[in-house]
């Protein structure tokens, strides 16, 4: 018997815009409003979280419903996951209702379960029939409320959920695009469970690093790409939320990392996902995200290059003039970043991107590489990692003698290889499933990534020097004379490190080639 599933598109919306959504022509009609109180449970040692499941008991009027959900891979907006639910007699979990769910094996009963947090939501519900492709049926829920912990920590909830009750997921995106033309909507990447967990762990509002991608050896290359792409978009949205609230150097860095990872995924999976729309999507992603690079370069210069120069030349007054000038430049650059993130163009692009990932032409029967797309992810990953390693090996020969442009190509090749190694890690967790083999596989993967990271670090330092040189050249146009002079000194001082860094990078390249690839 197949698992019961829900397919849901979650979108974040400002609380002040929820009333506008209720009045939208597509949603006009009778709404049902209910007060939902949901309490989420786990054992003190986090057994359910560790196993990848959530348990909640929701009070809906006089009814109590117990729900078990599989958390599934990191998602961006679209949630498609196993779900088991049923009515129970009271407000506390009922062990008898675990029958037929994974919790029956994970728990010996309800003993030891304790409430983690409570979601209190006013839900406005509207059911749409015969909408979108093939007369799809969609349940629209507008949620307004908060999540609270026993120690009085609170996080607001303001979101719209579009749940497919019949038809194709394309209908969800069509409706979201139409609603988003009138009301700003953003992809939602945190379920209420994840929001509550982040609140308990004090992670809300903190810059989000990349998370491991949940891949399984038996999945197809297409499914692997979707999981990777959703993980990248999830990291992007978490950091986007922080940047919309104010300037944050680390959040901008992590947002750029997420977009670089996504662009690398396009490159790594190129043969799988190529279709008539892919070139335009890649070009648009690059165009929209270009302003982020300038802001990040200024962050690095002001946060790393300039402090080092100040230590070397504490009496150089021009460095203060340079700092003040670049701070003004940085404020303007971050304002441009915020403008992009606030634009409808950016929101619409991300929604269209998720729709393409989920149901683009590349998934259709006309894909000339359908056999590769539908083939095993592990076989695809092995071939791709091998190819990328050969690129790094070839391009990095005689690295110390390469010019900056050639070194840049090595850095890009190494970056894509590293992202590929991180994306595909779970596919090589041990062939026979024993702890001994799994532990060995983890060690081999860690050794390879460590060697690759060492090469990237040295090439990254060399790239920072090149970026500093470019910034200094740009300062010659309109910057105060003292700032230009100080930037010239900084450039000369950083250039003096180039020889040493080149030597270290060459050694790191040799060390990487000597490390046994974890996928063999």
TrEMBL record:
Pfam families: CHAD (PF05235), CYTH (PF01928). It comes from the Bacteria. Residues 218-520 form the CHAD domain. CDD domains: CYTH-like_Pase_CHAD. Residues 4-203 form the CYTH domain. Coiled coil: none annotated. This is Metal-chelation protein CHAD.
